[in-house]
Amino acid sequence: MTVYLAYSAEGIDPLADGPWEEIVPLDESLAFVASPHQRSAVYHALKDALPSGAALFVAELAEVPKFKGMESGTLAWARHAFGDG
């Protein structure tokens, strides 16, 4: 399983259908996406779920990132996803 970080000012819909097992919102515009698929498949599925022309950023994460002030439980989820907790 790979964890990606996705950003769109339009928002990332945690209920969107796509090639992932879970989308975990960090805030309205930022989310972790857990998927066994490559970044390209995740990117294109998220892009298709957004309004035409919306900006989108998707990056693969190698480890739990440093962050604070995000949705409750997201740090624990990330640590579990990376086997750090």
What would the principal axes of the Cα set say about the shape? globular
Trace the largest sheet across and list its strands.
Answer: 2-3-1-4
Helix content: 10-25%
Q: What percentage of amino acids are in beta strands?
A: 15-25%
Indicate the structural class: alpha+beta
How many DSSP H or I helices? Answer: 2
Low-confidence segments, given as residue ranges, are none
The total strand number stands at 4
The average pLDDT score comes to: 95
Radius of gyration, taken over Cα atoms and rounded to an integer in Å: 12 Å
- Separation of the first and last Cα atoms: 16 Å
Task: Give a quick account of the main beta sheet: strands, pairing sense, barrel closure.
Answer: 4 strands, antiparallel
Number of domain modules: 1
N-to-C SSE string, H for helix and E for strand = EEEHEH
Describe this structure in words.
This protein is α+β, with helices and mostly antiparallel strands. The protein has one domain (2-81). It is 22% helix and 24% strand. The chain has two helices and four strands; from the N terminus they run E-E-E-H-E-H. It has a four-stranded antiparallel beta sheet, sandwiched between helices. Strand 2 (22-25) and strand 3 (30-35) form a beta hairpin. The longest helix is centred in the middle third of the chain and has 11 residues, at 39-49. The protein is globular, with a radius of gyration of 12 Å. The model has no long low-confidence stretch (mean pLDDT 95).
